[in-house]
Amino acid sequence: MSNLNKVNARTKVIALIAIFSSLYAALRLVPTVPMIGAQGASFSLSDVLASLYGILLGPFTGGFSVVIGTFVAMGFGKPVIFLGLDFLPALVNAVALGLLVRRKWLIVVALNIVLLVGFLLNPLTSIFISVGGISFPFVWLHIAAFIVLLSPLGRKAGQWVETLKPTFLAAGISILAFVGTMMQHLTGGILTEVVRNQIYVVLGQPPIVLTASFPITWSIVFFLYPWERLGLIILAVVVGTPLVRALKKSLLRPEKQAFTDSKQDQKPPVTIRA
């Protein structure tokens, strides 16, 4: 794979998509915790890759790897949950972080606003969850992630990743993964409401998740999703810090650097005469 730096850009992109979509498909077939509101379905080990694909490969290559990997996994028997739109939550994560690393901050802010408002405006969403008689916003952690995105940390995280210094790299990945996984969770929530209930009703079929069941579903999810997202962030940092550092220095070096190194390799040895 080290020879990928010496081929043209289009061939390199195709090769990267082939490699990383295969990895994504393989890990998507490995189930982890059950998915609340989707009976018989579960989250996959590939969920940890969505953030890393955006950081490593960018919005285009990372996004295509997620989409292709999702459909390949479906071909090997992974259950279809959202009428074929199963790739969308992880795609949003990968594309958003790929854009942040490339300093397209404003686009990600706009996308986050659309997802947050879209989820809150859906009549099936439980805006507040009662805990011991006290009401808490269901999206409290999503709001926290959005505030981080708006803060200087949202702009600096991508720069920290590019330094490849272990401390800054880990901090950058944790911030980016926090923002990305929360956007992924919002997308999954919207799909659960729209696809598994409202679209089924429009098609004249009984909804998979009954309207009356959503308050209970969101109450359960409220207590679980912070821990689930925390686990994904920790895994992204633990796996991603050495992985990003290694691949960015070899396989995924910038094209200009690879070209410079290639030219240096072609220089004839210098003869020193006495």
Helicity range: 55-70%
Number of helices: 9
Structural class from helices and strands? mainly alpha
CA-CA gap between termini: 42 Å
- Write down the Rg: 21 Å
- Number of structural units classed as domains: 1
Q: What is the typical, i.e. mean, pLDDT? A: 87
Query: Low-confidence stretches at least 5 residues in length (pLDDT < 50)?
Result: 255-267, 269-274
Note the run of SSEs as H and E: HEEHHHEEHHHHH
Form type: globular
Q: Report the β-strand fraction as a percent range.
A: 5-15%
The description of the largest β-sheet is:
2 strands, antiparallel
Descriptive notes:
With about 270 residues, the protein is mostly helical. About 70% of the residues lie in helices and about 5% in strands. The strands form two sheets. It has a two-stranded antiparallel sheet with strand order 1-2. It has a two-stranded antiparallel sheet with strand order 3-4. Strand 3 (about 130) and strand 4 (about 135) form a beta hairpin. The longest helix is centred in the last third of the chain and has 37 residues, at about 165-200. It is globular, with a radius of gyration of 21 Å. The relative contact order is 0.13. Mean pLDDT is about 85; it is low at about 255-265 and about 270-274.
